[in-house]
Write a structure and sequence with these properties.
9 helices, 22% strand, T-fold, single chain, binds magnesium ion, 36% helix, binds adenosine-5'-diphosphate
């Protein structure tokens, strides 16, 4: 009896043990089958440009959900901040210039607050009140016969270009443009800002690494499945073989070596490039590009043809790169080094300027100085 009892206890024990072993091996087997982290990538046209989102995930479904959430966020911000859409909150602010404050959503308030921060640190070289002058140059209308606006027309538009006349009422969530005729244009910061926000929603979906590229405004976080940081290319501002309009280029992979100025690792950071090749027209051999000096109303003549800035956030890299295009190389390098940021600039003599932090770390191809 006693023996039998022991025996049955023994077999119960064996049963439990084998059940545990079975469960363990099932777990091991399952984790063996569990998919490895992979890269998932999708592309879309948003904000009048080419957007790609890449995420690291072990599940296609999760990756897809996160990528779509990122695109949705960019679309939402485009809806709020689009200068050209009469339905955007930005247009409502512009219509009420000199008349009344406009109540806006937290995202619009935040984007304008950040734009003003960039204006402050660039001493107004970046000015989101640039709208009335930008409008005159019609850079966004590639098919029009471009005419250089007259001096008088530019001088008149310049009167209302002053970021200090943009008033934010935080408590009421209102924006007021103090002078009639003022117009905000966030084209110099919106893409970097949207890349930041897309990254935020992708992170919130539990994704451990992602890269959001809105044309030349790229924000990354985390590491790729191979443990490396994201590698991004900086476009050569004067490639020899320019087959395709630059706005359609993806930046990074698959380009001929000549199309890349240099490439660098981007971990939890953003990089933005402003170039005179993005949007421009040529008249009598002179290039008129879309980055305007707010002091003159004419395309900036700082000699810079390309400015890339690396910063913790996309709104900083985007806004500052546009501002530095106006400030020029010396002031630009000084500003970046003062702020502890990095950057690469190229001038019209193909001279390359690097911040201290990048010297000796990036390769510059032949043909540049
Ligand atoms: P891209 O839009 O080609 O990526 P940028 O980020 O440099 O390049 O932004 C250029 C856009 O910024 C212009 O199309 C215009 O809408 C706006 N802009 C031009 N000059 C200025 C300026 N001095 N300050 C702020 N925004 C500007
Ligand atoms: Mg910019």
């Amino acid at each position: 009896m006693k023996k039998k009892a022991v025996g049955s206890r023994h077999s119960a024990f064996r049963f439990i043990l084998s059940a545990i072993l079975y469960a363990l091996s099932a777990i091991l087997l399952f984790s063996g089958c569990q998919k490895q982290d992979r890269l998932f990538k999708k592309e879309r046209n948003l904000m009048h440009t080419f957007v790609t989102i890449t995420v690291v995930s072990n599940s296609e479904k999760e990756a897809e959900k996160a990528i779509d959430a990122g695109f949705d966020e960019i679309k939402r911000l485009e809806g709020l901040l689009n200068y050209f859409s009469p339905e955007s909150e930005l247009s409502a602010i512009n219509r009420a210039a000199g008349k009344s404050p406009v109540k806006v959503s937290p995202s619009t308030l935040d984007a304008i607050r950040k734009a003003l921060y960039i204006s402050g640190i660039t001493g107004g070289a970046f000015d989101p009140a640039i709208g009335p002058v930008i409008k005159l140059w019609k850079f966004s209308e590639p098919d029009t016969e471009h005419v250089i606006p007259s001096k008088d027309v530019i001088a008149n538009a310049l009167k209302v270009i002053d970021y200090k006349k943009i008033k934010i009422n935080e408590a009421a969530s209102e924006i007021y443009l103090e002078a009639e005729g003022m117009e905000l244009d966030l084209g110099g910061i919106a893409k970097g800002y949207a890349a930041d926000k897309a990254i935020d929603v992708i992170k919130a979906k539990g994704i451990k690494a992602a890269l959001v590229a809105i044309a030349g405004d790229i924000r990354g976080y985390g590491l790729k499945p191979d443990g490396e940081a994201w590698r991004v290319g900086v476009q050569n501002p004067r490639p020899k073989y320019d087959k395709e309009p630059p706005s359609l280029k993806k930046g990074g992979e698959g380009e001929s070596p000549d199309e890349i100025l240099t490439s660098l690792y981007l971990a939890d950071k953003a990089i933005s490039t402003s170039g005179d090749y993005e949007r421009f027209f040529t008249k009598e051999g002179k290039r008129y590009h879309h980055i305007i000096d707010p002091r003159t109303g004419y395309p900036s003549d700082s000699k810079l043809i390309s400015v890339s800035v690396i910063a913790p956030h996309g709104y900083v890299s985007d806004g500052i790169s546009t501002g530095i295009f106006v400030l020029g190389a010396q002031k630009g390098i000084a500003l970046l080094e003062f702020m502890g940021l990095d950057g690469i600039m190229v001038d019209s003599d193909m001279k390359v300027y690097l911040t201290r932090g990048l010297k000796g770390k990036v390769e510059i191809p032949a043909g540049f100085r």
